[in-house]
From TrEMBL:
InterPro entries: MFS_dom, MFS_sugar_transport-like, MFS_trans_sf. Keywords: Cell membrane, Membrane, Transmembrane, Transmembrane helix, Transport. This is MFS family permease. It comes from Sphingomonas prati. It holds the Pfam family Sugar_tr. GO terms for cellular component: plasma membrane. Residues 10-419 form the Major facilitator superfamily (MFS) profile domain. It is a multi-pass membrane protein. GO terms for molecular function: transmembrane transporter activity. It is found in: Cell membrane.
Length: 422
């Protein structure tokens, strides 16, 4: 694609859409880390409430592969554009409805039940979002630009994080604790409706990607893309699934778990810790950009391997820095962790779609990304909380290093499979 105006439109649509979707996802993660435990679950103990909140956070990771299969099916059969619009509507609608939920003190067990239903809806929508946004960019990328185009939807993650945590930080600075507890926490969820409208306005102006048009011209689409992926492309699917484990584990340990542990056990104020995370997320954005450039200069797999090695080092530094008792040490850990996150996340937009042919690319990339999300991120905050409660932060660091080792093995195996498809 050599039309500069179309290039800008595609990149803008992928960035805005994923930023909105990740904003929705992250405001839940922030709320779960800070106060959903006490609001939506019975008062047995503070630790039990926090773990219940993290369990509801993990529920979306179970929903994401289901969404990936459903949206992937239609994305490979009827097109990328309409599927991306539908995923955005489902995600945004689920997020907005959370703003109207009653608390456990008002509605009893109905409160956590409804919260979990809407959290499932969030995950179902996001399951179709990432794969479609990645395909939108890489299938429109000019020769030699797949890494740089593929990194653009990845930048939606730090943009969404800044918007989500920045919103909570602003509310915390302008509202009293009682106001924040009574109604202020609902405002970021309500704001999702406005942001979804923006995302829809951008995406409805798009056309289908050249790769999808060519696939239709060559013959009818696969009847059941999901079945084709597992029957003919199981090796790439497994490589992609385990290859993303490090990225999810690293991110949710450095954000959701770190926020809950930092404002609880370590005693930092919510405002202070959110400011540290907002500063550290800029390192993630820088890492994504650097990884995208390096992916075009070398190749995405090599950059991902380097990121996994860096993640092992971050795991070894988790306890000494994060548990140092110093704000400088905490910030340094967060910055290093999220910088490494850029290198295990940024190249995925170019690497994962390249494992599959165009006819099943939406399904294959989405399934691998989201099943890997369960393995890497779905249980990470809950597991880390349990390990830290019993053995301190050192086991959490080993857990992170182990997740990086899993992805490293998968990436090395993928290099020998010869299954990558341009």
């Amino acid at each position: 694609m050599d039309d500069p105006n179309m290039n800008r439109r595609v990149l803008w649509a992928s960035l805005v859409g994923t930023a909105v979707e990740f904003y929705d996802f992250y405001i839940y993660a922030t709320a779960a880390s800070l106060f959903f435990g006490a609001m939506f679950f019975p008062a047995t103990s503070a630790a039990a409430q926090q773990m219940a909140a993290y369990a509801s956070l993990g529920l979306a990771f179970v929903a994401r592969p289901v969404g990936a299969a459903v949206f992937g099916h239609y994305g490979d059969r009827i097109g990328r554009k309409s599927t991306l619009v539908a995923s955005l509507l489902l995600m945004g609608g689920s997020t907005t409805l959370i703003a109207f939920l009653p608390t456990y003190q008002v509605a009893g067990w109905w409160a956590p039940a409804l919260l979990c239903v809407l959290r499932f809806g969030q995950g179902f929508g996001l399951g179709g979002e990432w794969g479609g946004a990645a395909l939108l960019t890489v299938e429109n990328a000019p020769p030699g630009w797949r890494g740089r185009f593929g990194m653009v939807p990845q930048l939606g993650a730090p943009v969404g994080f800044i918007a989500a945590n920045g919103f909570f930080l602003l509310l915390g600075l302008t509202l009293t604790p009682d106001q924040f507890r009574d109604w202020g926490w609902r405002v970021p969820f309500l704001a999702s409706a406005v942001l979804v409208g923006l995302g829809l306005w951008v995406r409805l102006k798009l056309t289908e990607t050249p790769a999808f048009k060519q696939q239709l011209a060559e013959g009818p689409p696969e009847a059941v893309p999901f079945a084709t992926v597992f029957a003919r492309h199981l090796g790439p699917t497994l490589a992609g699934t385990f290859g993303v484990v490090a990225c999810f584990a690293l991110y949710y340990l450095a954000t959701a778990f770190a926020l809950g542990w930092g404002t609880g056990t370590l005693g930092y104020s919510r405002t202070e810790f959110l400011l540290m995370q907002l500063g550290a997320i800029l390192f993630m954005a820088a890492g994504i950009v650097a990884a995208g450039v390096l992916s075009d200069r070398y190749d995405p797999r090599r950059v991902l391997i380097g990121g996994c090695l860096g993640t092992v080092a971050v795991g070894m530094l988790l306890a000494p820095l994060f548990g140092s008792g110093s704000a400088v040490g905490v910030f340094l850990f967060l910055a290093l962790a999220l910088l490494a996150m850029g290198f295990v996340y940024g190249p995925l937009g170019a690497w994962l779609p390249g494992l599959f042919p165009a006819g099943v690319r939406y399904t294959g990339a989405s399934i691998a990304f989201n099943v890997g999300g369960i393995l890497g991120g779905g249980v990470a905050p809950l597991a880390a909380q349990a390990m830290a409660e019993r053995g301190g932060l050192a086991p959490v660091g080993w857990y992170l290093a182990g997740c990086a080792a899993v992805s490293l093995v998968a990436l090395l195996a993928a290099s020998r499979s010869g299954t990558a498809v341009d």
